[in-house]
Amino acid sequence: MGDRTSWSRRDFLGLGVGALGAAGLAACGGTSSSTGGGQAEVPKELLDAASSLKGTAMGLLSQKLYSTAANEALDSSIKKFADATGTKIENSLVQADAGDVVAKIDAEVKGGVARDLAFMTDSRFIAQFHALGDLEDVTDVVTALTALYGEPCAEAKNFCVFDGKWYAIPYHFIGIGSFLRKDWMQEKGIAPKDVYTWEELRDVCLAISDPGKRRFGWGMTVNRSGDGNGMIEALINSYGGAIASNDGRKVTFDTPETVQAVTFLGDIYTNGKFKPMLPPGVASWTDTSNNENWLAGVLGYTRNSFSVYADSKTKKNPVYDNTHVFSDCVGPATDKSLLLGQSQGFVVFKGAKNAALAKLLAQYLVTAPALVGVSKEAPGLVMPAWQKVWDADPYFTGGDPAFPMVRTMSQQPLPLSTKNGLKFPQKASAGQQAVVAAYVLTDMMQQVVQGTAPAAAVTAAHAKMVQIFAQQGLPQ
Q1: 256-270 vs 440-449: helix crossing angle, rounded to 10
Q2: CATH number for the domain running over 9-174+342-400
Q3: Residue 91 and residue 64: Cα distance in Å, rounded?
């Protein structure tokens, strides 16, 4: 979904020293205002609350979106807010898939040089930052937004709340899905379905593969990557395994269910029967590789955030019209997909020099006028995190055939359960998030591909997880 670490800076308004004002929380209601030059609507309540902050500055750290145009649209929304409020806002990008992003930002917070506000994927990062003591309580903002825009996306209530307090403000929902080439399937007489088992999907991928035509069915890697991590963990969960217990505190990885899942997945990469469906170089793919190969039209299936789907649509790639979108596959322990999606959450860092302005900016960026331009450049990837924002612009309800699936995912009742008692989402855990960030899952699968028995690889991975949990203050 991303590329290597990149800390590029877009200083379109300049950065100064922010002075923390005494502005209270503003409810961003329906009344809106525009500045000259066709600026986007900024709710009057936010403008009023920001009046005492005119001339101050703040820094924002944005998790890099796959779409360059979406990043530019976000810049535009930020600039419009800054112009309307008479403030200065610097926006910097961070690539979240490098593995060291938490350590870097934590060092900045501890050193007193962190940005005031950031948005990061809730299920991957918020628990880690909270455990490190890096975040301010933002319950006041979430309470105000809930009064205006209804409930936030369901999964955010698990990953952004600790001890009954919100430490991240839901910003936008990230659709995640599975994608099949329906034209290749039709050529083979295979009708698309909305639900597959992993075994069924594997067999479809093999059936639609034709290396002579540069058609490779299985477009996923188990090399170090966010997409590889996500696929491995989702498959293991559907078989009834999990990194940790439901309370997020105890490593429970080494189970027969996990071994069964790892055995199944390892077979895809080691059994000669499935070689025709594996793309050349798949063993060394990084996070952009499945995106690039899907868009090049050589993959029959991939699993990704909606970044790849969005890119095919916005760039009028013929792959878009031939894409069948469905949720995650089911496994022996599941009757339905366990796919939750994710959301980006705004966090205010400890020691923020302009927390008041940061909170007001967050309240603006979640609104339909600020979000729709970003979403149109990243359809399905950047969607509303708040119930009433979905209905605030016709684009969100009717802009793409896949949007209803994404909305259902964002608002589905949680938790989702497996037959053996696992519940997803599990309680947000710094240990689990650190395990994923350390690529323990992909490293385990690499060992299997290189000949290690699945049971031995799972046991070794479990031991690494125990060490990581202990480092995160969760001794086993």
Answers
A1: 60
A2: 3.40.190.10
A3: 11
* 402's tokens: 């896949």
The vertex-295 CA angle with 291 and 301, nearest 5°, equals 70
Cis peptide upstream of residue 425 (ω within 30 degrees of 0): yes
DSSP characters for 409-445? HHH--S-EE-TTS-EESPPP-HHHHHHHHTTHHHHHH
* pTM attached to this predicted model: 0.86
Rounded to an integer, what distance in angstroms lies between the CA atom of residue 54 and that of residue 82?
Answer: 9
For residues 41 and 61, the answer to whether their CB atoms sit within 8 Å is no
Phi, psi of 384 (to 5 degrees): -60, 145
Name residue, tokens 């940061």.
358
Bridge partners, residue 181, by sequence: 323
Phi, psi at 218, each rounded to 5°: -100, 100
pLDDT in tens, the chain (476 residues): 433 333 333 333 322 222 222 233 333 333 333 333 334 589 999 999 999 999 999 999 999 887 888 999 999 999 999 999 999 999 999 887 777 899 999 999 999 999 999 999 999 999 999 999 999 999 999 999 999 999 999 999 999 999 999 999 999 999 999 999 999 999 999 999 999 999 999 999 999 999 999 999 999 999 999 999 999 999 999 999 999 999 999 999 999 999 999 999 999 999 999 999 999 999 999 989 999 999 999 999 999 999 899 999 999 999 999 999 999 999 999 999 999 999 999 999 999 999 999 999 999 999 999 999 999 999 999 999 999 999 999 999 999 999 999 999 999 999 999 999 999 999 999 999 999 999 999 999 999 999 999 999 999 999 999 999 999 999 99
Options 3.40.50.300, 3.40.190.10, 3.40.470.10, 2.20.28.120; CATH of 176-339+416-471: 3.40.190.10
Q: Domain coordinates of the chain in residue numbers?
A: 9-174+342-400, 176-339+416-471
